[in-house]
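A.,

Following up on our hallway conversation. Structure tokens first:
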């Protein structure tokens, strides 16, 4: 692929982009002078779809006009609203509809899933995590371990990169699983690490976990809507994800859950129950005795969060139209271009060097690139912010950027380095 470091070339790539019109489906924040910012923070909070407000207003109007009757007579009846999200969510994560449900928030779902899938014994009680997992995951796992009466120092095993390296190697993860062996109850990784941007080989990790008799689960907060997923095919036991990052469904948005089909009829599997997970045909009989619905829906607790789900539905409709494969193809083009620009920047500038701690291998990364600029990284981050580039800073030394194919452009990639050169 021929590449050129010029504004005209970047604009020519945008002109050829078959997804270029999707940018108009999002509100792009503006600077105080009215200029659109370069928004590279979809890994933290995705932009608002232009249809989000209308989606919420429709449900507010039905509430105003119908009251409680909105549950059954609204334009999108609330009683079954979550089902509108099932098929597109399943498409996103490579699942069957029976394996997916949208409910609650991410860490709540993580706890609910560990109730069912972390079943420690005196011999098999350990949990393997990637070192430096997102803090909420660390806290959730620590509290689950204590709840079962174990010491987190003994029960939680973390695997870190080798000395002088930033990310993990799949053979090392697999070997660690084998080393823990019969003591391993659960492998719980992020699909993509929030700090380094490394995408893990979930299929290999799952297979290794199963070979030693353990369960494999994933937090897909930074993976859903970012990288291609085939959870059913990979035989993943469970997963959960938020919807406010790459899935553009608003701050504090609802969460998705995947539970493999092999557990669809596992009614004896321990779980915390609520009435929305009870057999739908009998839900309003108000009787004792929990009978879980088949599949992931049987893990629901309460009725649907209509307003957050309305935003999520608006976003999912965009993903359905764009198609995850087309988004991934554009991402790969953007990744090649940004690395080309970055390498040229490092070769030509004598101001500072940018080190990327995210794997360059497309099989081990998604949209996010984690950049390290020694000593002056925080100053560079603040300079970018002042110049209309929205990125984020993660201690101790990382600037995270995430050009996403739905609304970012090749021109923005070019301008990013052009602005950096003026530091």
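Then the amino acids I'd put at each of the 423 positions:
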């Amino acid at each position: 692929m021929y590449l050129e470091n010029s504004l005209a070339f970047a604009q020519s790539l945008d002109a050829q982009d078959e997804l270029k019109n999707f940018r108009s489906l999002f509100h792009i924040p503006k600077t105080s002078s009215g200029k659109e910012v370069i928004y590279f923070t979809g890994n933290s909070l995705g932009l608002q779809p232009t249809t989000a407000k209308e989606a919420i207003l429709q449900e507010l109007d039905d509430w105003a006009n119908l009251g409680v009757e909105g549950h059954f007579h609204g334009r999108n009846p609330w009683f079954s609203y979550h089902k509108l999200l099932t098929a597109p969510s399943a498409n996103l994560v490579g699942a069957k509809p029976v394996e997916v449900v949208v409910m609650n928030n991410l860490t709540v779902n993580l706890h609910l899933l560990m109730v069912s899938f972390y079943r420690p014994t005196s011999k098999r009680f350990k949990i393997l995590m990637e070192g430096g997992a997102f803090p909420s995951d660390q806290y959730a796992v620590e509290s689950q371990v204590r709840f079962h009466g174990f010491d987190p120092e003994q029960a939680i095993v973390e695997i870190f990169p080798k000395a002088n390296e930033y990310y993990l190697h799949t053979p090392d993860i697999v070997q660690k699983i084998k080393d823990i062996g019969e003591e391993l109850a659960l492998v719980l990784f992020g699909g993509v690490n929030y700090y380094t941007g490394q995408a893990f080989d979930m299929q290999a990790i799952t297979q290794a976990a199963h070979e030693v008799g353990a369960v494999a689960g994933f937090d897909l907060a930074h993976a859903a809507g970012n990288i291609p997923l085939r959870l059913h095919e990979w035989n993943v036991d469970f997963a959960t994800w938020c919807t406010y990052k790459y899935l553009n469904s608003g701050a504090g948005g609802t969460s998705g859950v995947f539970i493999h089909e092999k557990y669809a009829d596992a009614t004896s599997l321990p779980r915390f129950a609520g009435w929305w997970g009870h057999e739908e045909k009998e839900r309003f009989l108000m009787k004792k005795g929990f009978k879980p619905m088949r599949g992931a829906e049987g893990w629901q607790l309460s009725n649907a969060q209509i307003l957050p789900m309305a935003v999520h539905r608006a976003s999912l409709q965009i993903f359905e139209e764009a198609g995850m494969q087309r988004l991934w193809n554009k991402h790969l083009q953007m990744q090649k271009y940004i690395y080309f620009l970055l390498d040229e920047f490092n070769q030509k500038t004598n101001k500072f060097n940018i080190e990327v701690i995210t794997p360059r291998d497309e099989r081990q990364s998604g949209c996010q690139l984690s950049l390290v600029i020694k000593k002056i990284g925080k100053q560079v981050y603040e300079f970018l912010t002042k110049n209309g580039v929205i990125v984020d800073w993660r201690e101790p030394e990382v600037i995270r950027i995430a050009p996403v194919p739905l609304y970012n452009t090749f021109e923005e990639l070019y301008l990013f380095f052009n602005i950096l050169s003026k530091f």
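The chain has two domains: 7-49+323-420, 56-321. Curious whether your intuition agrees with the design.

B.
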